[in-house]
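pasting for ref
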Amino acid sequence: MPASMFGYTKTVLENVSFDPTLFCKEVEKAIKMLLPYELEQLVDWLYKFTKSKPELQACLSYVE
């Protein structure tokens, strides 16, 4: 069974979280690629992941 696109996206976002601009670009890409149920998972994950990272919270506007 292939890995889920959500899992891959999450890994990419974790790896680029050092750069808020790049993180936001990857969030935008993910929104276009993911299936609706994966997008729901991404939104939940983003809120949890960015809770302690205020520099990344600007990207939440893409999913609201």
